Every structure is written in structure tokens, then in C-alpha cells.
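agent> fetching stored inputs for the fe (ii) ion docking request
agent> found them:
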Amino acid sequence: MEIDTITTICGSPEVENTWIYQINDTGLYVREAHIESVTPSREKTTIVQITDVHLNDTNADDEADEEIMYTKQCRTWNANGISVKALCSAMEYAENYDRTVITGDTLDYLSCGAMELMQKYIWDADSNCIVTLGGHDVTKQMQTKRPNKLPLSERQAILEQFWRHDMYYFSEVMHDNVMLIQLDNGCHRYWEFQIPKLEKDLAAARENGYTVLIFQHEPICTGRTEDKAVPSFYVWEDCEPYANFYDTCIGYAPASDAPTMAIYRLITENADIVRGIFCGHEHSSYYMEVEGTYTDKDGKVHRKNIPQYLLECNVYEGYTGHVLKITV
Ligand SMILES: [Fe+2]
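agent> prediction call returned; pasting C-alpha cells
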């Protein structure tokens, strides 16, 4: 097998969490995460994450929709479907591995044109692809300074008809090794109906020795006050160099509702089996650890941090794509 030559963009392979390299042939930017399996004897499993694809386009079906036509005028970033190029580059790489997960903001705004591109380049290319929702997927307004005409539930209903799996909660066990869980938190919150599903899956994972990986759009609060301004380890194009992973994040107790806190606790209080959280949203490259705990068989509580990876937006630097390759 031919080995691709690569160029390091940032960091070094010795410190994997902050290493970014580019594959010379395709220009694809790659990060890697090696996660220790809860049951190391199980078959190696490799998942590729892509995020923030931001498909921006309209088609004939949008023309009668005044709301979308006004957004089209206001929103020029990635217009005319240009981010398809970066999507295809990342999807082509991902097809060599066990599963592909796209963590939200796949559509730049909810247009028929963007959904057509998603159908063609995601669902038709890989019917097993798992896609979480981001805030962009559920809005028809972008840079218009206008509110959405339809309530959130009606905008979600449009997507529900079209999504290939439960878009709020989906889980899958791969190679008897990894339990991959996708959770919608794209509206900066979790939902009540996600709680029993996650409880059941975590119990099954514990019972069967699975390694749990969480995929969602937004990161969660790390639990540390000093994380109000975490530096991005590589700042892409016009991205902010810092982000707040404390009091503006999901799971910061004073600002989160009860279902959101219940899910937050389920994730962070099972830190022995939840081995990674993978998200996007900020558009730049981050790695941090979320403070977690687990309770042993004797009821004793132990502290253990959970790695949280934020992959950068897929379109930056020449539309060649960005991926995080996760090996368990
Ligand atoms: Fe985004």
C-alpha cells in the first residue's frame, strides 16, 4: 500500500492532541486521537469525524420562499455550494475507515438547495454516515437580522422527514468495542427525551465492556473556572483565538435547565467508560479535558478527566477538508 506523504502544520506527533498534519496529495488536514479501549482485547475501531461543513446553496424549490431568498442575498460565505469540495475531500478519506460522523452545521441554513447537496454528497455517498444537528441546520435566517418565521418545532419537522436516523439521539455499537453515541445539543441544550436513552446505553456499555464516545455539535463545560479563555492551539482564518469552556458552555449549572444538567451528569459521572467527547461549533482547533468522576463497585467515587476534542470547520484554508481520525 502506498504511504501518503504528509506535512506537519502544527505541533508534532509526540503530542498527538495538538498535532495537525496535511496529506500532501489531497491537501486534507488531519488530526488524530488514539483512545484506550475499556476492553483492550476487542477489535480495533476507527471513526472519522468531520464538522461544520456549512453547505450554502439554494435550488428551484427555494425560489418561492421569500425568507430563504432574503437569506441568500445576505449570506455570501460558502455561497453556491462551494463547500462541497471540502466535504468530498473529507468523505473520500473517511470511506477507508469504519464509520463517519459529522458533528453539526452541515447546512449553513435550512434551504432545499443545501438539503439537496447533503442528500447527494452525504446520504447517497454513505448511507451509514451519522450526522448530528448544529444551530445552523435548524435556521432559515443567516445574517438577515430577522427572526425565523416558523417555530423551531416546524423547522425541525422539515429535517426529521429527511434525516436518515433519529437526529436527536442515535447510538451504535461497532466491533463489539465502541459504543458511538450522537446527541443533539445544537440549540445549546439537551432534551428530556434523551435522558432514558442515554441511561440505557450507558448501562449496556458498562455491562458489555464498551468504550463510549460522544459526538455532538457543542462542547460541554469543563468544570474549571480557568477555562473561561482557553487558547485555540491553531487559529484558522478569521476564527477567535480563545473560547470560553466554563460559564457559557452547556452544563454550566446556573445557566442550564434540568434535562441539560441530567445529560451533563450522565456523561461526566461515567468517566471510566466515556473516553472522549467530539464536537465542533467553535470552528477552530481545541483540545481540553472535562472534569469527570466514576463510582466503583464498592460505591467509592474517583476523579477522572474526559478528553474533549473540538475539530475545526471543514472549509478553512482552500476547501481541502479537515478530519479527526479516532482510533480505539
Ligand atoms: Fe459552524
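agent> quick read of the result: Residues 61 and 89 are 27 Å apart (CA to CA).
agent> awaiting further instructions
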